[in-house]
Design goal:
4-stranded parallel sheet
Length: 291
């Protein structure tokens, strides 16, 4: 058998992670580590396999895995579990929640496939330079600071999202498409600094707070819902073509007169910015995701 070289610090890190999860003080040879990891209860109080593997992959010189499937009995990803996990694609059919900063700062992961995840906590999807795609078809709730500083993602669709905290969808420099068909409230400092986003539809929107700002290309906002969206902060739409008077807000025809007479909309937007949605002749699908 050929000799293979391993970094001593990497081996020590694996041993330390095993002791952290078992609560013991045993020392391990390389040959003993596999059985020691296998003996740790998955998904139980001792920790999960993803956390142990995180220690194994927490090395910038380590080989990057193409894909990793989270073990089937793990339904909750713990805080910081994948911060330095060197894998391109992550998948799990069983994960339901992700704790704070579960993936934050990872600069290798490109895709995350969690089809049954319903809730992610604070700063989970944040500061990830390589991430290009997520699949969260059942994600119903976001905490604060999700999808922030994501440099490579071009499209994002969250068809089930109905509630979110503040500071979401920020500084996504490549994003050209954002689909949020069920979000009623656009929270403070959300949808911020998306320089390439030209069109945005919010079919369920009933309230816009201090949000939708510094989107220099946002020429069209669509509000096709049957309830008028109120604006509760005078700083909404700062540094967008909409507030500058060169963009348009396309509204439900039945609410057109109500928008024209509503205090914020009539006071802050130039004449001609608000338009009936039936007059829109472009090809953007403002009903995408609407059931």
């Amino acid at each position: 058998m050929a000799n293979k070289l391993y970094e001593e610090t990497s081996i020590q890190a694996i041993a330390a992670a095993i002791r952290q999860k078992t609560g013991g003080s045993d020392t391990y040879t390389v040959g003993q580590m596999a059985s020691a990891i296998a003996s740790i209860p998955s998904g139980g109080g001792g920790g999960d396999e993803a956390t142990i593997l995180h220690a194994m992959m927490d090395n910038t010189d380590a080989t990057i895995l193409q894909s990793y499937t989270i073990p089937a009995d793990i339904t909750d990803i713990r805080s910081n579990a994948f911060r330095s996990f060197r894998v391109i694609n992550i998948t799990s059919d069983d994960v339901l929640t992700v704790e704070n900063e579960g993936f934050r700062y990872n600069d290798v992961i490109q895709t995350i496939f969690l089809p049954n995840c319903t809730h992610i906590k604070e700063s989970v999807i944040r500061d990830m330079s390589a991430l290009v795609s997520v699949n969260f078809p059942k994600l119903a709730e976001l905490n604060n600071r999700e999808f922030e500083t994501i440099a490579s993602m071009q499209t994002l669709s969250l068809p089930a999202l109905t509630a979110m905290g503040n500071y979401n969808f920020r500084t996504m420099n490549a994003l050209t498409k954002l689909v949020l068909p069920k979000v009623p409230i656009i929270t403070d400092n959300s949808i911020y600094n998306l320089p390439l986003l030209e069109n945005l539809s919010l079919p369920a929107c009933t309230q816009i707070r201090n949000a939708i700002k510094s989107c220099a290309s946002l020429n069209n906002l669509f509000l096709p819902g049957s309830t008028m969206a109120s604006v509760t902060n005078n700083s909404a739409f700062t540094a967008t073509p909409i507030l500058l008077g060169t963009g348009h807000v396309w509204v439900n025809d039945d609410l057109y007169d109500s928008y024209l007479s509503a205090s914020w909309w009539s006071s802050y937007l130039a004449s001609g910015v608000i338009q009936k949605i039936s007059d829109y002749t472009g090809d953007f699908d403002y009903n995408e995701g609407v059931e």
